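On to our target:
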Amino acid sequence: MPLKTKSVATKLLLSSCFSAVIVIVAIVTFIKASMIPQLTDKALETQTRTMAYALKGLYGDATQWSKDQLAKGHALESFSAGSQNVATLFLYQGGRYVRAATTLKKDDGTEATGTSLDPNSDAARSLLSGQAYSGPITLFKRPHMATYLPVIFDDGTRGAIFIGVDYTSAAPMLALARQMDYVVIGAGVLGIILLTIGLAFSIRVERAHRETEDIMRTMQEGIFLLDHDLKMGSQTSHALSGILGFDVKPGDNFLELLKPSVSPKTYDTAKEYIDLLLRHDVKEKLVASLNPLDCIEISCIRPNGGMESRFLQIRFNRVMKAEKVTHLLVTANDITRQVKLERELRESERKVQDQMGMMVHILQADPRLLQDFLVRATTSLNQLNNELRTSNPKTGITIQQLETMQREAHQLKGDASALQLDAITQSLHQLETQLQSLHDQKERKGEDLLPVAVRAKALYSEIGAIQEVIARIGQVRGLVSVEPPKPPRASGTEPPQPLVRQWHGFAQQLAERHEKQVELSYQGLDLGILAPNLREALNSMINQFIRNALVHGVETPQERKLHGKTETAHLSVYISDQGDDSVELSFRDDGRGIDPEKIRTAAVRSGRFTPELAQALSPRQLTMLIFESGLSTRETVDEDAGRGIGLDSVKAMVARMGGRIRIGTTRGEYCHFRVQLPLKTAQETTHNRNDSLEEAA
């Protein structure tokens, strides 16, 4: 069965074996068929020529060529005795060369004296022209090597001297020829042996090659060798091109192929890393952790023409020979699924942690406050969605609509943070960021609102998750009821109201985040008797005041100590019934107060005022600017402040409910907000929002 092979090495091996056998046989055959006969003829020709000239020397006198003298022919016997040589003396008679004396025998054993040389032979023609002749002839059916020498004397006598050697006298040369036959046979046998060995070795090589091909074809990793010039070897796995996202060929520069898919920094770092691996004096384990291609993200084109992002892991191992690095074995893997699974796992763990934390806070929160927040959050999200749906698809959304949504998002964020619903707080903070980005754009189109809609949908899902948790907790509480232990309290004291507990917790949370110390006290009405919408509004306002105080007003313990204050700041909240169908909220902190110069700087930074116009503002006018949307004395934005929306949202709520707000402050001592709201809140107001602001005397 013929061996079908694709291996170049196997083909070369078989070709070499065949070629070697053919060359040996050709050389031996050439020697036997060409060189040996030539050597034999040459040797015999030289022998006959030498003997012929020797015989001619013996018969150099014309007197020796008489018939009587030639008939004696004793000298001829010495040239043929003991051998198969033939010596003949010819006389030219009647136009023919006749054997006058010869040692040649006829077939019947008698001497061939009197016989003549064929006049048409080459020898006869050469003699007639006076030239010698040497060459093979046939005498009485026996091959001979012969030499004819013409003899001409002055007296007109003409003759010829002949020496012939029978080829049977060349026995050694013929034996050599026969030996060459054996050599040819031996060469053939040797060739067969070599071919057998070569074929067996070729089968092993081909089997190994096929195994390598099978491995390269079926393995899922991309594998190839990289030389010192960063060029790829001839053997690569079939999966390599699919993993890398581009075609590769032997001899390609690997880093140049990878360059369009990675950043310049990654490219430079990868080149330095590979150079380190190719150095013999650098330990491989020491630099393995420096591999910049261990996890890289690349973009490649799908078969349908679209773009996709994938993650690759490319690792390098040294190939050593005589303690020198000859190549690098490169292994490439598509770890996109692994990376995505790890991200999904981390996200899932984060969500579980968030849900666990949320569950803890839900269990600790007052159910009524939590339910009020969920109702208000759902209402606000519905309003936000309505604004998005009614926006003009071409012109997008107006600044006024954006500012309304920003205020709602900021109020919700404050309330969620007060309830320690961290996941909701973070989502609302991201929503604020998206709204601010839209606010800063010069042009807003309908498609720009898509991220906001996606974020709102996510918030719906998160609020739904909280409601589901509350429902499950309610089911558990319905099955098992455990009365919590009652903390001891002094005689005549009442337990803090749920909202007060929330405000206290929110203040402590912010204080820890900003490395400050604070205590909050409340006096006034039982908040449970207030209408839900009024209670919710007061809660949102106080949350904003707490946030504003802890971020902007309250100093660090070190600052307070330097100014002769206690290290712990105090926030006072007082809600009272004014007796005229209205309630008043009083919120006071003993912090640094309002700094008009900081407000002046913020006004210029916001771009709303030129330095000259800002310089012309009075302290009262500057103080009123803290209620303007988008103006903040904080230069950086975080979860707690920096957007200039908090007090603007308070101002909007007060105006919407038909109330009034007053502010009093002394720099370095305190800041005091007083908000008056009707018990029967108005759903809509027609007066200007600025009418609700006053500066306290």
